[in-house]
Write a structure and sequence with these properties.
heterodimer, A: mainly alpha, 14 helices, B: mainly alpha, MetI-like fold, about 70% helix
Chain lengths: ~290, ~300
């Protein structure tokens, strides 16, 4: 239900086209930088800095080729592979651990449940930056520096509490009838989880996957702190390097590769768009 | 089965371990570290309150950085929240193609944290970048956004504001719960749309405004990618936010004790501001149903 329900069509302030124009303008201002970035990736270096329009005079793909090759001994193929080597395992362990924990919070009774739940909500407010330094020292003790372990292993312990919260909220909204029936049929907890809960949770799990994919692809500070060798760099660090390497930045190349770097996230976003804006809404968290 | 306490605890165990290992232990450890001097080579040395004394009295860069961080939060958080509320309000009217706009406004929140967008930002605010090109065409003097300390802050504030989408979807959900009957009654009494917005919409969603303010504040105080990539803290430290200072002290200069002290100052800042907002919320946050209970 929305406020417009009671409006007479064509009322003074009710002209929908006024809203369309307002929304359209805001959308244009917001998305123009992205559009322009895409256009600029086909432009020559001189055209980039003189042309306000986003449509290039002619399409030149050479910036893509040069940017992809990079000034290092590796191409962006390596960096993308590295990004996926971090992202995919991390998504898998995140989903497993968060579903287990959310299942416990939403359905089971156990000692300390209330306190643990408050701790979980509290850690969402905790500035991560306070934890970075000691976490670094712990991983250094373990000999995990310059590997992907510090970026993946914590997620196996359900440290991404936002997802737990989201899954718990979702599970609480699902009636328990099916679980009760399955219990009468003699299902144990794990069978119940696998055959009943996981299928029911599917939309929420998709949101977890999408969010974790995009956030991990975007993650910059983690790799910056933990990774030292260039051959292990993910896309985010490699992009930073392409700017820092030379005083005179070859903007066309950098822009082309920035566009490529955004493609996986944008693709995943549009593929799961409906799902995941709703997921963000229903859980009501994360800014 | 759901009454089986051991089974429930077994399922929640990964979380318990995770909190202990990766949250609580580091949290306590960073507090302990803040009373030491530590450079990763020699073992940590206890120095008492020296780090805190130094940052309070002998560190002009800290004072500058604190000021910059507060300024950033004061500008960026209200801008983002107000924008999010405004757009959510407009989107709340039933329109065709609403999903397109919702996605369009949400997209920057998805991409905003990425380095690629920081690169883009640096580039559109460059001397001959898009913004200056547009300003020249409009007959305005171009501005050295990244080189002038009076304007550099705006580049990162605008990047933060640009990502208002996630706050927006939360507002949108809240707006959809405001009963239509209230608007109908107001309409009968001849209230204008603006009056309706201020007297019905805003009071009813204050809990959500409050929630968004706090969450955005926690984010704003930790903003790192923007200042790191776009302005590199400069010029003249005008965008040298605390997150950047903590990073430099901890991971570039390896003053780990000092870095820990700085991060605890940041934590105390976020914590006390959240506490103040919680405390003040009873004066301005309206929770539906509260009044009935008091009667």
């Amino acid at each position: 239900m929305s406020a417009s329900n009671m409006q007479p069509p064509g009322g003074v302030s009710g002209h929908p086209w006024v809203r369309y124009i307002a929304l359209g303008l805001v959308a244009l201002v917001m998305l123009y930088p992205l559009l322009w970035l895409i256009g600029a990736s086909f432009k020559s270096n001189s055209e980039i800095f003189t042309e306000v329009g986003f449509w290039p005079q002619r399409f030149d793909f050479s910036a893509y080729a040069k940017g992809w090759k990079t000034s290092t001994e590796y191409t962006f193929a390596t960096y993308f592979l590295n990004s996926f080597l971090i992202t995919i395992p991390r998504i898998i362990v995140t989903v497993i651990s968060c579903v287990l924990v959310a299942y416990a919070f939403a359905r089971f009774e156990f000692w300390g449940k209330k306190i643990l739940f408050s701790i979980m909500v509290g850690t969402m407010m905790l500035p991560l930056i306070v934890l970075r330094l000691p976490q670094y020292l712990v991983f250094r003790e373990l000999g995990w520096l310059d590997s992907y372990l510090p970026l993946i292993v914590p997620s196996a312990f359900a440290t991404d509490t936002f997802f737990i919260f989201m899954l718990v909220q979702f599970l609480k909204g699902i009636p328990r009838d099916m679980e009760e029936a399955a219990q009468i049929d003699g299902c144990n907890a794990l069978q119940l989880l696998w055959h009943i809960i996981v299928p029911l949770l599917k939309p929420a799990i998709v949101s977890v996957i999408v969010f974790q994919f995009i956030w991990t692809m975007n993650d910059f500070m983690g790799p910056l702190i933990y990774l030292a060798s260039v051959e292990k760099y993910p896309v985010s660090l490699a992009l930073k390097m392409s700017i820092g390497a030379t005083e005179e930045v070859e903007w066309a190349n950098v822009i082309a590769i920035s566009v490529v770097a955004l493609i996986p996230s944008v693709a995943v976003f549009f593929a799961a768009q409906k799902h995941f804006i709703e997921g963000a809404t229903s859980s009501g968290v994360k800014g | 089965m759901y009454e089986n306490k051991r089974l429930g605890f077994l399922f929640v165990l990964p979380f318990v371990l995770g909190v202990l290992l990766f949250k609580l232990f580091p949290f306590v450890m960073s507090f302990a570290l803040s009373f030491t001097q530590y450079d990763l080579i020699d073992p940590p040395q206890y120095v008492g309150l020296e780090n805190y004394r130094e940052l309070a009295l002998d560190d002009p860069l800290f004072r500058k950085s604190l000021g910059v961080t507060l300024l950033f939060a004061v500008l960026a958080v209200p801008l983002r929240v107000v924008f999010a509320l405004f757009i959510a309000h407009v989107l709340n009217f039933r329109l065709r193609g609403i999903n397109f706009f919702r996605a369009a406004f949400y997209l920057p929140s998805i991409l905003g944290g990425s380095i690629a967008v920081a690169v883009l930002w640096r580039f559109i605010f460059a001397k001959h970048g898009l913004v200056n090109l547009l300003m020249t065409q409009a007959g305005l003097e171009p501005i050295a956004w990244l080189a002038d300390e009076h304007y550099s802050m705006w580049t990162i504030v605008l990047l933060f504001t640009w990502q208002f989408g996630s706050a927006m979807v939360i507002f949108l959900a809240a707006l959809q719960n405001v009963p239509v009957s209230l608007y109908e009654a107001a309409e009968c009494d001849g209230a204008s749309k603006l009056q309706q917005f201020w007297s019905i919409t805003v009071p009813l969603i204050t809990p959500v405004i409050f929630f968004n303010m706090i969450m955005q504040m926690v984010h704003a105080f930790q903003e790192f990618n923007g200042p790191y990539m776009i302005t590199e803290g400069g010029p003249l430290s005008s965008t040298y936010v605390l997150a950047l200072y903590i990073y430099d002290q901890s991971f570039r200069f390896f003053n780990l004790g000092y870095g820990a002290a700085l991060s605890w100052v940041l934590f105390a800042l976020v914590g006390s501001l959240s506490a103040i907002s919680f405390w003040s919320s009873k004066y301005w946050v309206f929770y539906a149903g509260e009044k009935e209970q008091r009667k």
